[in-house]
Each structure stands twice: as C-alpha cells, then as structure tokens.
Amino acid sequence: MSKSSDRTNGSRAAAAQDRSGAAARGSWARGRWMVLLIALVCAAPVIASYLTYYVFKPHGGTTNYGTLVEPQRPISEALIVKDEAGKPMPLASLRGRWLMISVDRSACDEACATKLYFMRQIRATQAGERERVVNVWLRTDSDAISPVIERAYPDTRKLIADPAALAAWLPVDAGTRDTDHIYLVDPNGNLMMRFPKNPDPSKIKRDITKLLNGSSIG
What we know:
Elements: H1 3-55, E1 67-74, E2 80-82, E3 88-90, E4 98-104, H2 110-124, E5 133-139, H3 147-152, E6 157-160, H4 163-169, E7 182-185, E8 190-195, H5 201-214
Parallel strand pairs: 4-5, 5-6
Antiparallel strand pairs: 1-8, 2-3, 4-7, 7-8
Protein name: Cytochrome C oxidase subunit I
Keywords: Membrane, Transmembrane, Transmembrane helix
Transmembrane segments: 33-56
C-alpha cells in the first residue's frame, strides 16, 4: 500500500475518531443538562417556598403582620410528640402542609381557648384552600382535655410535647412566652412566622391568605 493511501486511511480514521468524540461529548453534555433539569424540578418547591417567604418584603417595606423567623428554624427530627392516642411520633411527620401552632397546658384557659378559636376561624375562612392548613395544639402536659374543648375543635391536632424542647425551638417576643403566640410552619417544616400576643385574627388571616395564594406547595 502506498504512502498516499496510508495517509488517506489515516485521515479517515482520524475524522471518524473526531466524529465519535464529538458525539460522545454531545451525549455527555445532554446528560449533564438533563441531570441539572431534574435537580431543578426537584428543587422547585423549595425555591417556591423561599420566594414566597420573601414576598412579604417588598421594596416599600414589610407588609406582613407576623414576625418572620430568621434564620429559619426547621422542625428537628428529634422533636418527638405524642398523638391523640398517646403514640410517639416525630412532629416533623406533619411536613407537607402549613401548620398553625399554639402551645398551652391541657387545662385550656381563656387565652388558650381564644387562640384555638382564632386558628379555627382563620383556617375556615381559607375556603377551598383550608385543607392545606393544619391547626396544631402542642400540649405541655398529659392531663385530660375538657370535653367542651374536645367538641369545639375536632379538626385541631392535640399533641403532647416536651415544654423544654418547645422552648428551645419556638422564639418569643420580649416579655412573652411561647404560650402567648401563634406560630406558622411552612410545608417544608420550617418555622417561618410568629404572631404577637393578643393578635388581630383578621391580620393573621391576611398573612396566611397571601402565603397560600403565592405558593404552590402544601
């Protein structure tokens, strides 16, 4: 075989190798973009939550009634509560929906009953969106609940929690206790908002309506 023929065959082989390499690089690039796209789709709910979280901070100043909790305080996997049957469960297992949380003793006094009433009414006013919200009463003891309270709030989760664990997780305003506030947890399990003592329920409703309208999660 002549040298000219060898060079021609070599050139063809090199060209074929280049085409093969280009195809492999193209396939690798497509695969990388596909992985990135999948990761973006999976992260979209979290991104949406963070965007919604900061919708409350327009350029003209904050318009939310509740106080945003910063930095975020996720529900600890170690925070174990007891359900209505006395069975232990992680509070984090309630992730997936918006949680309105109140903390009080089982002997629910007037202030406790007022918070439970506000929470029930605020949830009810969300109409078709109300199933996205779960009301949670974290009881700091295992004493019996009044039958009147049981009947009045059948849709409120009545869970027993360690008061020390709650105090470590739930922030308070100056001069208040966690039993003075209503708290809001997002569907990702992040404590995101604290409402003031003796709150205006119409303003809490406004905040929660804005969150539900601005978010597709939960």
